[in-house]
Design a protein that fits this description.
mainly alpha
Length: about 210
């Protein structure tokens, strides 16, 4: 079994929990409170600053020229696409402090880059690709027609261009896994699952307008 398929099976409950989360349900309906969406986009901007650097760092550790090219493209595309989207939603919003969940998520990825193999690093950054595609597909399929203030966000993650990037990332994940030992595959799966859980935490933290307790 391809590791991507095994990973998806393990994360199916997480995907279901994300899709049923009030944040996603209200975003789909266009009723999500603006302050919650702004909180999310603000934290996403902070997350992606580190995420883009992680993608570029992974490119520097890969060996296959096509893999390297893909990850450099991912890094560039993620920053370009997100900057444009954030500009449309955050043009008049001041910078915010990083939340506890965003800190945890970026620190976990940084730890993989510092201490784990490139295969595990790829596994850690993959959920951000795959889960956003799953959420985008879910929302575009189930949303009712009408004027949704978040439609541009929805269209971005349900679009064909993003789908192609996700497919490339999954293929790289599987190709690396095929050449890995079982213990290495186990570490890749663990990283994938951990970051999938953090994706749920990221949505949830935005809905709760999470703050540092002290």
């Amino acid at each position: 079994m391809k590791l991507s398929i095994e990973s998806m099976k393990h994360t199916e409950p997480i995907i279901q929990a994300i899709n049923q989360h009030p944040f996603v349900q209200e975003l789909m309906a266009g009723t999500l409170a603006r302050d919650k969406f702004t909180f999310y986009i603000t934290q996403d901007r902070l997350y992606l600053a580190d995420y883009g650097r992680a993608l570029a760092a992974i490119a520097g550790r890969l060996y296959d020229p096509e893999h390297i090219s893909s990850f450099l493209s991912f890094a560039n595309d993620s920053m370009t696409m997100e900057k444009a989207m954030h500009a449309s939603f955050l043009h008049d919003v001041p910078p915010a402090a990083i939340s506890p969940t965003c800190t945890l998520y970026t620190a976990y990825i940084a730890r993989q880059l510092a201490f784990e193999s490139v295969e595990v690093c790829v596994a850690a950054v993959l959920p951000c690709f795959w889960i956003y595609k799953m959420v985008g597909d879910y929302v575009i399929k189930h949303q009712t027609k009408g004027d949704n203030p978040y439609q541009s966000w929805i269209n971005t993650y349900s679009g064909e261009e993003f789908e192609q990037a996700v497919e490339r990332a999954l293929n790289i994940y599987d190709e690396l896994a095929e050449k890995s030992s079982q213990s290495q595959r186990d570490k890749m799966l663990e990283a994938f699952l951990t970051c999938s859980k953090m994706e749920w935490m990221f949505w949830d933290s935005a809905y709760r307008l999470e703050q540092w307790p002290i």
